[in-house]
Description:
heterodimer, A: mainly alpha, MetI-like fold, 3 domains, 6 strands, globular, B: alpha+beta, Rossmann fold, CATH 2.40.50.140, 2 domains, 5-stranded antiparallel beta sheet, elongated, AAA+_ATPase (chain B), transport (chain B), transmembrane transporter activity (chain B), ATP-binding (chain B)
Amino acid sequence: MTTTRTIDRASLGWLGLLVVSTVGLPWYATGGIGASALTLGLSDRPWLLPVAGLTFSLAALALIARDWRRHALLLPLVIAALAALLLQAFGIGLNGPVLPALGTLFPTAASGQTGLGLGGFLAGLALLGLLSDGLAARGFCRGERFASACVIIIVALLTLFVFFPILKLGAAAFTDETGALALGRFVERITAPNLWGLACFTSSQSCGVVINTLQLGILSATFATALGLALALLVARTDFRFKRALRALSILPIITPPFVVGVAIIVLFGRSGMLTQFGAELFDVRPGRWVYGLTGILMAQVLAFTPVTFLVLLGTLEAINPTLEEASKTLGARPLKTFSTVTWPLLRPGIAAAFLLAFIESLADFGNPIVLGGGYDVLSTKIFFAVVGARYDLGNAATLAMILLGLTLVAFWAQIRWLGRSNYVTVTGKSDAGLVAPMPPMLKFAAIAAVLPFAAFTIAVYSIVLLGGFVTDIGRLDLTPTFGHIWTAFSFELGTEGLRLYGSAWDSMITTLWVSALSAPLTMAIGILTAWLVARQDFAGRRAFEFGTMLSFAIPGTVVGVSYVAAFNVPPVDITGTMIILVISFVFRNMPVGMRAGMAALAQIDRSMEEASQTMGAGGAKTLRNVVLPLIRPAIFTALVYSFVTAMTAVSAVIFLVSARHNMATAYIMGRVENGEYALAIAYSAVLMVVMVACVALIQLLVGKRQLGRRTGMTGATAAQPAE
Amino acid sequence: MKDNAETQDLAIEFVGVVKRFGDAVAVDGIDLAIRRGELVTFLGPSGCGKTTSLRLIAGLELPSDGHLRIAGRDVSRDPASERNVGMVFQSYALFPHVSVLDNVAYGPVIRGVKKAEAHAKARGILDQIGLGGLHDRLPAELSGGQQQRVAVARAIAQQPDVILFDEPLSNVDAKLRRKVRSEIRALQQEFGLTAVYVTHDQEEALAVSDRIVVMDKGRIAQVGTPEDLYERPASAFIANFIGDANLIEGRVMAGRFAAEGLDVPVSGADGPASVSIRPERIALDLSADGPARIASGTYLGSRMEYAVTLGGTELLVSRPISEPRLEAGQPVALRIDTGGVTRLS
């Protein structure tokens, strides 16, 4: 509390970390304890010396300066050190200098360097910590150091793991195989006839992949929205008997791996599918392959996205003040008139939102097109084959990914615009005394007629998923019960050498559990912290910060996957093939969900409680721990469950990132589907879903959920689902 | 330069403090010194910058410009957690998930006091404040008045350099306000605390303060004791804001203020001027040839308030309820207590 303080504990911590990571830790991912920035810099890698030198200058300044945090030299030194670190890391690649100037300056750089290791990353982290400390001393984040550190570090992480890969991918679209700028190639790629062709509208030939994607997106969003509306009307506005069942149905897709529905459709309608065979015998026609292509994908997507549109529209319907409809009735309008003049206009923003949400999901969907596509290419699968197939063509994949990203962002932007402008529904806090108007009977029957086939279909699909894994061959209706499939996947032996796992699925299952268990708490922590920063802190660039996190939300999983391939298989951040890259991809894809849950929870909490804690001497971290976190436990629960479940079921991003050593359950199942081993795929999916439910129960036990309504909790999770 | 003794005596100093939010200026250059043990009230209409000034002292906002010293130390860049300022929030801001005792012990515990010791201390303060039996309750199980006292106890428990009250009575029943405000005043004096109090209620300000700082549009309009402000308002704004006032435009010539039908002694130079006369400083004489006429009367329970026309001006006059009622249209003469006439700048 005196003005003569030199350096305090927190700053000393960052400084100590910096010194240790440049002097004592291995700078590169490969290398022992001795290979620190200092020792390597003094031997044959002099480009590491500026970082080490600036580290010592900072330490020296701490010894002599009276008020270190406010010293005029602190920030310049820290920024110079960060610049030196980034310049050497990005300037010298695996095969020598990327920047020619560095090659002239350091002749030994010609032999190149590998990716950063523990020392390099921790040095970067420590420098960011010092930067945040210095900025806080100058009033950033109202002088609150913990908040300042969080902002700086989260911005750095988002830049590294969201924006840098996208930029790198964008750059790949404009370069040729050698990495040289090639605008001609870009023009060639983006005008390729197999992108924009319209032949399918005039002939029996197929359309371009962009046209296919849009066609699928619009059809799927239209059907899903219509069905979702019918469901929502039945639940909110009628005395329909199976309301609870309908609500329960809507939770299923959240825990369903994306291509399971596709597999079930093949089992039902594929060439040798149950219904196909039945129909063929009945009408004596040859079984066709009609389900592969647009029709099949559309069926699967409508089934998968209807619950999402249903929840959005149900929310809109329940938020409409019934007194408005009562007013219309007292003015003499008949039910149909009331519906068309009052209810319908109030519903329109919700319908637009539901449509756009389903459209975005359809654009990003990878699991269903890959399983059911046949010859029908969409952008997400085309990107996959451009990178994973025999012809590795990152430039082409990048171009396709940029188109997909562009389409998604336009839809995302439209959604924000639309909802921002014409959201009539406001929560006033007053109780709405009125009773909801029952639906006009005509509409009610139309809704039931639409919903019944959907419900039957859903039940059929999930029966197959539940049953299929435990009978010999569900596709040929051989219903002899068997545990053979499960045993193939999960056989084990409890012998003298302890437990031995033989099953083919164990590796992927264990990796999946590890990745989910590691990424869920990290996702939750970063998401909740970000929410707290955006909702409660006041710092320059807060709006841009919020916008950036939301943007990361809109990027389709396929694009994330291919961008990670483009960015992280070369130094300085060389992490492809590791489990870390899987964890990181989930953390930054799902973090916005935790953030939204956190922001919604924080909006309910009077911020003066946090201010009271601060005036009593608690800094940001203590206030967060003592006051904020105990009050937003339901949001923590939502974030944990959501990120855990998504990590177990997602396929689009991980399919690019899995390796032989670190395979994920979803990728493994997809491999089985490609080989036609449907029963095994289905059995594994069923096990996956059971494990998921068990884990959610476990999380609930650990976090302890407080009066979290099932419906509200799940609404939050689904409405905020990122594009898969 | 101030001498050392005087600086030692100051609890809070604002030196040219400015606070901007984007383009809006909430506090527009404040200079103010608050002495130890003093209760100073920031009074003003909403949006005048009084709450922002309070939050600047707490460290919940940092000044855009200027300096702020607490107990002699420049804290302009220190966050709230590194100051030692207790605050009683309008909504009380009690932590709903911990007991009353833990709420009160929070400050000492955070500052490193052992839990048992902090609890003992919190018990002492709660007993002293008359909340002895409620230690283990949750805040939601207390009445509004009890919650308010817990909030005060919590702010006192950290032994702050300064204690801040942000409209502490706004959530208290109208009936209880008088009682609670005198309790706050008594506690402040008992603990010898330097206190800053924010309110928009002028009567509350007059009742609790050693000094009042009236703010208007981010600036200080006048600083003074309650009596100063009421008896000698510096401007029409102050005269109007604190109590009721008759504001009259006229001219001063040779030490007398003259306006239509009025002629009272004032000090200061000759020229155009305006004066403020409090309604209770005008007495009404019933005389048939009085120059003024009663326009209307309003019964206020404790007194009568009459609108009186004098020439073209209308004056507000209050009269004890025990005096006979006056009828509209009745001619009256005005007797103005010259001590109640203030020339405005």
